[in-house]
Structures are given as structure tokens and as C-alpha cells.
Amino acid sequence: MNNKLYFDFKVDKSLNTVIITREFNANLDLVWDAFTKKEILDQWGAPSPWTLQTKYIDFKIGGRRLFAMKSPEGQEFWSVQDYTSITPKTNLKFISNFADEDGNANPQFKGSENSLDFSEINGITTVTTTIKYETVEVLEMMVERGFKEGTAATFENLEKFLASH
Question: In the chain, what percentage of residues exceed pLDDT 90?
């Protein structure tokens, strides 16, 4: 595993945006599948010791993914992703929101707009994720709750998965 893979986490409060850039030592096809296929997402998508369980995924424009992060104690935190644009192996856009286990979005939060850009050079795939929040208060809440650390740990899980395939 390459320990010098690029990871950057930028917060722009003036635009209510987080931009995360991460390199992975794997080809584009495998990284794309890791972000879009339930059986792979569930293997890496939560920071340890948490786990991820996708209830369903309908990966198409207008489709939805409903999933939960689960704590070792059994707590479940549900989220939905509503796919708004899919350009295979290049870009994926969705609205993300907290939800209940039936997929009903939490009315207290406006969903974040997410755009993931994928590119590969010499077997290293870069994923740049741009997340725009409705307000700076929601952005600050996410950052204060350890979003950067959780993202870094989750991407380490993905790197381990990729290294084994």
C-alpha cells in the first residue's frame, strides 16, 4: 500500500462547501465500482468500528440509495442519496440527507449537494468530492462532529479493500 497517497480536506465557509480530494492506488474501474455497488460500499463505507449497511440502491438518475451507519452498540444513523447525474467513471452527483429507516428525509436539515469527480493517471485514481451545504451552520456542525477524521478513516478502509483486489 502506498502511504504517500494524496488526501486533502478543505472547508470553504464562504461557499458552505467541503472539498475532499483523495488518491487511491487502484484503477478507475475498481474505484468507480467501490463507490457505486452495494456489495463493495458496505465493505468500506464507515469508519471502524462502525459498519455500513445499504438497505437498497437504485443506481440511476432519479434513483436512490438508503443506508445506515451502525455503531458496535447497535445505534443506526440512516441516510439517503438521491442521484441527480451519473456520467460513468467520470462524475456522480446526488443530494444526501439524514433519514429514517424508511428513507424519509429529516425535515430539520436541507440535503447537501454532492459531486464526485473521478480520474486516473498511471494506475492512481483520484476522487474529488465537493459537498455544498445549505448553511454555514450545517457545515460547521458536520466539521465539529469529526467529518474530516471519519472521512480519512473511511478512505483508509477503501484503500485496504482496493489493495486486496
Answer: 92
